[in-house]
Amino acid sequence: MKPINQLTSIVTPLDRVNVDTDQIIPKQFLKRIERTGFGNYLFYGWRFQEDGTPNPSFILNNPLYEGSEVLVASHNFGCGSSREHAPWALLDYGFKVIIAPSFADIFYNNCVKNGILAIRLNEENVNHLIKQSTEHQKKIFINLKEQFVQYEAEEKFTFDIDPYWKEMLLNGWDEIALTFQFEDQIAAFEKKHA
Amino acid sequence: MPKTIIEKVWNDHIVYEEKGKPDLLYIDLHLLHEVTSPQAFEGLRLNNRKVRRPELSFATMDHNVPTKNRSNITDPVSRKQISTLAQNCQEFGVPLAHMDHPDQGIVHVIGPDLGLTQPGKTIVCGDSHTSTHGAFGALAFGIGTSEVEHVLSTQTLWQSKPKTMEIKIIGELGFGVTAKDVILAIIAKFGVDIGTGHIVEYTGEAVRNFSMEERMTICNMSIEAGARAGLISPDEKTVDYLKGRAHVPDGKAFEALKRKWLSYATDDGAGYDKTLEIHSEEIEPFVTWGTNPSMGSGISSSVPYASDYAVQSDREELRQALTYMDLEEGTPLSSIEIQHVFIGSCTNSRLSDLREAAEVVKGKSVHPAVTAIVVPGSFSVKLQAEKEGLNKIFEEAGFQWRESGCSMCLAMNDDVVPPGERCASTSNRNFEGRQGAGARTHLVSPVMAAAAAIKGHFVDVRNMLSVHA
Ligand code: SF4
User: How far is the CA of A154 from the centre of ligand 1 (A)?
Assistant: First the structure.
């Protein structure tokens, strides 16, 4: 996975609560056996009309937000299934950072494992970001090492993150390789419980 | 110090701990299915890694499999996913219950069926409804594909210790009220993210009285309340259920195991980070009317009004849900007409579910406007039901009797609800498009689904059941 630290991007606002994994990537697209190629189907039901043409009122189809790497949404983002296809689709589409007041647990983990930075900000700041970025396309600056996002010169919000996940994201570590360093402890546990 | 079952099982599985880091937990049982595993096996191959403990893994095919003609998977991509799992299991030595194997079924139905699921175990699967296995007092949770790969190669996972939550169900359930109604009522009362960051233990008189099947229904939907896992302390019922199952030893070994299992139960006086309570008398047969599992009400009530909600974002969410569901505010739930009925899924496809539903439909006919299917949770549930003649009861009433699998719960196979049509479903998710693009899902218990199939609209099943008291 690719390391992530700083980035500057336009923010894409998705003003919805409880966005579930069935919305992020509908199940008819889960049959691929690769990790790539899911971006075309991201938010499929909202993004496309019944005849398959883009839905002009959906934010991802607004050319002003093209190339955005940061998605901001309301609380409980990523609820529902454990499908990692959801972060794969977000990443494949180009989103590297998701901001919301809260995330579903499994989704949050799945983001970390794929190098997506999921940032929890309080509801008030998120609502502000959603409102502002709906009205005009402004750039946001994100710094993981220093744990802050900056929207306007005077709008700097800090965020919390588990130090272990932070290290993983900053370094782009392969978690399995890390765990292999604990081979002896694993073997000892197995011996004791055999 | 008295401990909860959550702490006991957790502490028993710590391989390594260090301040400021998640704990490295040992995993006792890893269940796999065809949808969330291919990329994990591919990862192993790319990095030249092997499966550390294939004998602690167990795979089956459930999400994609046809429920009509097993030998003919029309969708080439589904076929590929299924054959890929078979190849991966063979290459890495993972035991597999293939589509045609007598042990096949929905992964969360066969684990308990086979006795793989046991109290005190840590159980994971690339599937959020892994919480089902918590009914036995196991710490069971869903994981993503990267974690599947991690467990395959190390038999461990890094996990931050979650908070503990008790959900106490006070009093006995009323006549005709099922475990499904209880969990829907809990989610409606407390919301879809109340459990985030927590593992839930369900307690109270009603829980003790529940059969193991009913406990599975409750634990199954823990994830719909946002909790990663939900469990119930083991008792004699748990032990009785497991006795004699294929993967449970017998004789002296069983006696020793039984003592160990029971020792996991929460100690008297143990504390939780949070406790929520719900009174059984508040609960009647439930129907969801919206697009997440918290949007439901008792059958005697109506679709709410936007003006019932104080917060603007809740009103907006209601409006979006009702637009999708094509429902008006204030519509009585019993007037909603349905075109499909699905009895199945890892929430409600066990033998007891089918027996109860059969009781309702016996001697009656499915409404002419309704297409109704029963999809047993596993091959063995299907066989047992056929032995008891349940298939006959369903078929005579006009239901279709199918092969086991996930089927219309997520409609990855051919069992799809057409756009704009309504389904009374015993599954666990009513998200937009879950049962097919544009399909409208109402979550209910098996008896409520059976009653709706007969009437063509929702009804209070209590009026159709005879009281055996
Ligand atoms: S029955 Fe439905 S919820 Fe259960 S494992 Fe299958 S798809 Fe998932």
Answer: 47
